[in-house]
Amino acid sequence: MKAILLSTKGGAESLVLGDIPQPHPGAGDVLVKVHATAVTPAEFQWFPTWNTRAGNPRPFPIVLSHEFSGVIAALGAGVATLKVGDPVYGLNDWFSNGAQAEYCLAATTALALKPRTLDHVHSAVVPISALTAWQGLFKRANLQSGQRVLIHGAAGGVGIFAVQLARWRGAHVIATASSGNLDFVRSLGAADVIDYQEARFEDVAKGVDVVFDGVGGETLDRSWQLLVTGGKLVTVASQSADHPDQRVRDAFMLVQADGTELTEISRLIDAGELRVFIENTFPLANAQEAYARAQKGKMRGKIVLSVAG
């Protein structure tokens, strides 16, 4: 099968189009014919990209991108809840080859039927970002209706879903964004939007129950003071994982694949409660160009690689 490959350790400049054997599903897995997958430039810095679970170097070639939308092509032993031809979206194992290929493997517990109202291109950008927002707000912070939540990076890939999910839960959403995204973030459901280039958010947002941080660094450090007694801060900014402050490390979370949560997210999308945005789409063979655009930032949503029609 065709795939975008890494044959040596490097960045996006090392990506090449090549051929690798098509995988076969084991027990509890399915083979997905990939229609689209999202680009995540930070993956070049992730531990699972280059290492096995045991900490040994992963063998080459390596295929990136672990969120996808596609159609089930084959079933592994014991799979009874899905059938060949089902349109699905989800995540596959961080330590395995990803979805920048014509086919990928995924556990049945890590995917769900894709939203009926979305095409594969839009569905492909949902799993990581929407699950990160869902798990951060609802599982880690236990956000409740009527609470005040401050969302940093509200126009980013994760922030877009965080604002919408917090609004759906009935929270009062305060968001930070750049001047060009203020109206956009309001349209997602934020009650108060702070232009972080013009005002210090701590001078505007007071007494919040939850801070959901997608920025990290100084923004995160300045946020602790805003929490009410018993308030919770969750950060998904990658640099927070190795922060010298233990409370920051404790606040950091990594998304987990969860087919049950993806099913609920599909329901919300189909009900019109969640809107999905993409910045641009590139064919699989143009992966280097796609990464170059993603690395420039300033996007509403993610960059997508289209694999099949």
Notes on the protein architecture:
This protein is of the alpha/beta class and 309 residues long. The chain folds into two domains: 155 residues, Medium-chain alcohol dehydrogenases, catalytic domain (Quinone Oxidoreductase, Chain A, domain 1, Alpha-Beta Complex); 124 residues, Rossmann fold (3-Layer(aba) Sandwich). The chain is built from nine helices and 14 strands. Strands 3, 4, 5, 6, 7, 13 and 14 form a seven-stranded mixed beta sheet that branches. Strands 10-9-8-11-12 form a five-stranded parallel beta sheet, covered by helices on one side. It has a two-stranded antiparallel ribbon with strand order 1-2. Strand 8, helix 4 and strand 9 form a beta-alpha-beta unit. The mean pLDDT is 95.
